Amino acid sequence: MRELPAELVLPAGAVPDAPPGPPAVPKDAATVMLVRDSAVGMEVFLQRRVSGMPFAGGMTVFPGGSVDQRDVDATVAWHGPDPDWWAHRFGCSPALARALVCAAVRETFEESGVLLAGSAAGSVVADARPYHAARAALVAREVSFAGFLADAGLVLRADLLRPWANWVTPAPEPRRFDTRFFLAALPTGQHADGETTEADRTSWQRPSAALADWRGGGCALMPPTWVMLSDLAEHATVADAMAADPHFAKILPKIVRDGDALRVVLPDEESR
């Protein structure tokens, strides 16, 4: 596990006072690191969440969100590693594993317009813009993800995703998530956009450049995002990153006060 830098502290007010009683139960969530090759090296798609949002407002993050009932549907047309394979990697039930993969693909489509699906098992959509109306309907919860895929004659491409990491929001947070991070390559012909109400800025950046931007005060990163960017910075190309097989376990960090600052401490650091 990487050691977090000393200057990576949480902004004032980032962790509101937790209500009395036991910690909030984390919600299952999926986040996708969408990458592409460019003339300057591998880049990752980043979004700055709208300031004032209940969770991670103003932070630069990857597309993603929590699992909901639209994702718990065994009728989703599926190609790639089956839910049992994903369950083994993430240490959860096959039903939850299926829902996590569906949430990863759905949230990526809703927040970036990139659709990891195709009309047949071995194909992928070359242009997702014809599905713009369906994207809006998904965001508005007017249709289910399984229903959208069935109506469009599409198959979810689970084989385009790679499992990467699993982080749980620290206990003091009133909003907690058990987040599984995925890696996916931008499909040829598709374009990621900023057409989401949850972000006010989007960009493609080399992971090292995003980290340099953070060091210079240009963006705010949460510890998981910093670690993911540091991991990605070690890979020169999309193929290199997609071929990686990261060994990971569920990471349960803690929040400690360091003077006037709030710092996230990882299990390895806490034992030192």
Description:
- InterPro entries: NUDIX_hydrolase-like_dom_sf, NUDIX_hydrolase_dom, NUDT19.
- Residues 25-234 form the Nudix hydrolase domain.
- Keywords: Hydrolase, Magnesium, Manganese, Metal-binding.
- This is NUDIX hydrolase.
- This protein is of the alpha+beta class and 272 residues long.
- It contains 8 helices and 13 strands.
- β9 and β10 form a beta hairpin.
- α1 crosses α2 and α5 packs across α6 (223-232).
- The two termini are 13 Å apart.
Q: Topology, pairings included?
A:
Blueprint: E1 9-10, E2 27-38, E3 41-49, E4 60-61, E5 64-66, E6 78-79, H1 83-90, H2 94-112, E7 117-118, H3 132-139, H4 145-152, E8 155-157, E9 161-168, E10 177-185, E11 199-205, H5 207-215, H6 223-232, H7 238-243, E12 254-258, E13 261-265, H8 267-270
Parallel strand pairs: 2-10, 6-8
Antiparallel strand pairs: 1-13, 2-3, 2-5, 3-4, 3-11, 7-8, 9-10, 12-13
Helix pairs in contact: 1-2, 5-6
What class would the helix/strand composition place it in?
alpha+beta
**Name of the CATH class:** Alpha Beta
How much of the polypeptide forms β-strand, as a percent range?
25-35%
Cα distance spanning the termini: 13 Å
Count of helical stretches: 8
CATH-wise, what's the superfamily?
Nucleoside Triphosphate Pyrophosphohydrolase
Overall pLDDT, averaged?
89
The major β-sheet equals:
7 strands, mixed
Quote the CATH topology.
Answer: Nucleoside Triphosphate Pyrophosphohydrolase
Short structural summary:
The chain is of the alpha+beta class and 272 residues long. 26% of the residues lie in helices and 25% in strands. The chain contains eight helices and 13 strands.
